[in-house]
Amino acid sequence: MKCKPCMLHKIAFLLVFVGAINWGLVGAFEFNLVDYLLGAWPIVMRVVYVLVGVSGLLMPFCGKCSACKMEK
Q1: DSSP for 11-27?
Q2: CA–CA separation, 10 and 16 (whole Å)
Q3: Domains of the chain: total
Q4: Rounded to an integer, what distance in angstroms lies between the CA atom of residue 30 and that of residue 48?
Q5: Choosing a second label site near 43 at 20 to 30 A (CA), which of 4, 10, 35, 49?
Q6: How does pLDDT run across 1-55, given as a tens digit for each residue?
């Protein structure tokens, strides 16, 4: 059976993906994409980092929340 994620989990997956790309760029090239794109708005940068962190914590519950659907 496969999980068909709800909209919240789809958004969480996207944010985790963005976070993974950002950390990969930081590790490989010392280039912070979030800082580059949002450096002029430090509050927005902080919100993005918090949302990425919360999304990472939310991902293991895909398929266990009542809004996600299980497909056969």
Answers
A1: HHHHHHHHHHHHHHHHH
A2: 10
A3: 1
A4: 19
A5: 10
A6: 577 888 988 999 999 999 999 999 999 999 999 999 998 999 999 999 999 999 9
Domain that holds residue 55: 2-71
Written as six digits, the tokens of 53 are 């962190």
**Residue 3 forms beta bridges with which residues?**
70
What is the distance, to the nearest Å, from the Cα of residue 34 to the centroid of all Cα atoms in its chain? 13
Give Cα 25 distance to the centre of its chain.
Answer: 15
- Which residues fall within 8 angstroms of residue 67, CB to CB, at 6 or more apart? 6, 7, 8
pTM: 0.81
Residues in Cβ contact with 61 at an 8 Å cutoff, skipping those fewer than 6 apart: 9
Distance CA 13, CA 57 (A): 11
